[in-house]
Amino acid sequence: MKKYISILMIALVVLSCSKSDDDNDVVPEAEHKIVGKWQLIEINDEGAGWEVVDNNSSIEFTMNGSVIVIPDLSGESCEFRTYQVSLISNADDELTYFCNGEVSSTITFSFIEDNQLILKSVWSQSKFIRIPNQE
User: Fold this and answer.
1) CA end-to-end span of the chain, whole Å?
2) Could you tell me the pTM of the whole model?
3) Of 34-38, 68-72, 82-86, 118-122, which range is least confident?
4) Exposed/middle/buried for residue 130 (C-beta within 10 Å: 0-12, 13-18, 19+)
5) Residues 109, 96 contacting (CB under 8 angstroms)
6) How far is CA 13 from CA 31, 89, 132, in A?
7) In terms of DSSP H, where are the helices of 1-135?
């Protein structure tokens, strides 16, 4: 259960803090390398160290700006989820989630090469690996 709570916290952080910085650039989602499907492989709760996860959880960021989380454990009644990427100078980039058009949360993220994504909340981090297109 703890792993599902961590997934929930990372994928759709309920509590969020955002920062305002005029040097930040919003990037069209279709042009950002976050676009694609990502499989959860490890979590790090409260700095306790990375722990392997094998529960088939994934998150997909589409070119049209929507987000698909599997399984959806958020408890939110969202008819549609979207996201926005903001590039932050000299820091990790920000990912803002929207639920039915309203800001739901803002978290930071970074990449390890192009095939690993780390989503970071205040309490934990989740590491994802890119799932190749099945086309």
Assistant:
1) 34
2) 0.74
3) 68-72
4) middle
5) no
6) 24, 23, 26
7) 2-11
Domain span at 94: 2-15+26-131
Q: Convert the pLDDT of each residue in 22-59 to its tens digit.
A: 445 665 554 688 999 999 999 999 888 999 998 889 99
59, 101, 107: which is closest to 85 by C-alpha?
107
Neighbouring C-beta atoms of residue 55, cutoff 10 Å: 10
Where residue 49 sits, what CATH number does that domain have?
Answer: 2.40.128.280
Say which DSSP state 73 is in.
Answer: -
Sequence letter at residue 92: D
Instruction: Please report, as a single letter, which amino acid is at residue 56.
Output: N
